[in-house]
Design a protein that fits this description.
By secondary structure, the protein is mainly alpha-helical. It has three helices and no strands.
Length: about 100
């Protein structure tokens, strides 16, 4: 799935419209009941941080001689995957933002 500049611009416009008045400007659209893109990114970053903390604690247990090496490798792999996902989303958002900024008005 690719995110184009037009998709990002329309999402940004909807977020501004909802955020200004605490509701939807003009009353023509219904506010979303579910979390938006910001909530998704926030939960993704929180999950990545939790995964990295778990990998760090598994590594500390292994160093102390109380953990299993397989658990450490599995936790580190999960943390790397979570971090790669967050970085990929960040790169796509930055790319969409630069595309929007290049648009001529």
């Amino acid at each position: 799935m690719s995110i184009g500049a037009l998709d990002a611009a329309s999402a940004y416009g909807r977020a501004l419209t909802v955020g200004r008045s605490g509701g939807v400007a003009g009353g023509t659209a219904k506010p979303q009941a579910t979390g938006g893109f910001g909530d998704m990114v926030s939960s993704m970053v929180g999950n990545a941080a939790t995964t990295m903390r778990a990998a760090e604690s598994a590594s500390a247990r292994q160093v102390a001689g109380k953990g299993d090496l397989i658990d450490v490798v599995t936790a580190m792999g999960a943390a790397e995957t979570a971090l790669d996902t967050v970085v990929a989303v960040r790169d796509r958002v930055v790319s969409a933002y630069t595309d929007i900024m290049r648009l001529q008005i």
